Amino acid sequence: MVVDYHLHLRALRDDVEEIDHTLEGVERYVEAASERGVDEIGLTEHVYYFRQTEPFWVLPYQLERCRHDLDRYCDAVLEAKRQGLPVKLGLEVDWVPEHADELEDALAPYPWDYLLGSVHWIGGVAVDQRPGLWGEHPVERVWALYAGELEAAARSGRFDVLAHPDLVKIFGDRVEWDWQPLIDVLDGIALEVSTAGLRKPVGELYPDAGLLRAAREAGVPITLASDAHLAADVGRDLGRAVEHARAAGFDTVTVFEGRRSRQEPLG
Ligand SMILES: [Zn+2]
Ligand SMILES: [Zn+2]
Predict the structure, then answer these.
(1) What is the pTM of this model?
(2) 217 C-alpha vs ligand 1 centroid, how far in Å?
(3) What is the CATH number of the domain that holds 192?
(4) Which of 63, 213, 235, 254 is the most core-located residue (most Cβ within 10 A)?
């Protein structure tokens, strides 16, 4: 089985990427996925795109975006599910320690299949945008800050999957890193094998082979993801993600339903 469990539902209008939280949008993604041999997709819009989460954001980047309706997004995905399409309802949730409880309450009314946990900002400063943290700290310190936040996100027990686990390598600035402390706190949380890094300056899959092998040895499960923001990228390069996972010793992939998981044969 091949899943694409990290997707942002958008459409191109006059060459501009626009939010498209509609049944038609979901159908378009399902079609694109099936053309690429993907069996099931999961929609995972960023949590800061919804007005229901507005009280938790302070950054202009987030405040400019949180004007969409979470009910509309969920209804579009749930209607596709009702029609029997192979889709799951998810969300990409930033780890915001200071608002974690309130955020959980805001998301509680919705029937999620799974929640991705992500670290994009630390103390309001971005790890995946320049200059961001890179302008403030040496490379080693940025890695330590990122790994610490990701560990805290895992320990919080609020997420089913950690998205793009070694996102910190995005610009190719790297140090030798021991990910074992992260592996040790995963406790049932899956790691995402993402092809998004292939389209970033680093030009590699997330996570790297060392982290993935350590995860396998510890019995940590995986998902597969493109992190597509357009139908054209749905399922993109997932064959490479499957190969990468197999090389690390994986032969199953995680499938979610109602925040419960099971393993299916990989590929
Ligand atoms: Zn992300
Ligand atoms: Zn994403």
Answers:
(1) 0.98
(2) 25
(3) 3.20.20.140
(4) 235
